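RECORD TYPE: inverse folding
INPUT: structure tokens
STRUCTURE:
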């Protein structure tokens, strides 16, 4: 969609929505294309990622049970070396 600068000033909110929806929005001056409106890629933050798999992971019963002495010894032996 091509729009002239004057119309873009009065329709900016609508043009932004159209660009966000994936439409190609070009602003022209005197019929010559000058700029293109494109969405800015959003960066993920830690708060966006925290808990993002909460509905994807199923825990088996007893997953949080303490390890017995043999399991603890095996863990530490393998990781001290």
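DESIGNED SEQUENCE:
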């Amino acid at each position: 969609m091509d729009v002239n600068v004057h119309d873009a000033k009065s329709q900016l909110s609508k043009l932004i929505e159209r660009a966000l929806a994936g439409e190609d929005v070009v602003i022209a001056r005197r019929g010559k294309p000058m700029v293109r409106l494109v969405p800015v890629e959003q960066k993920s933050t830690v708060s966006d990622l925290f808990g993002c798999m909460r509905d994807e992971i199923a825990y088996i019963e007893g997953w949080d049970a303490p390890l017995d002495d043999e399991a603890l010894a095996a863990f530490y032996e393998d990781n001290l070396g």
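NOTES: Strands lie at 2-4, 25-29, 32-37.
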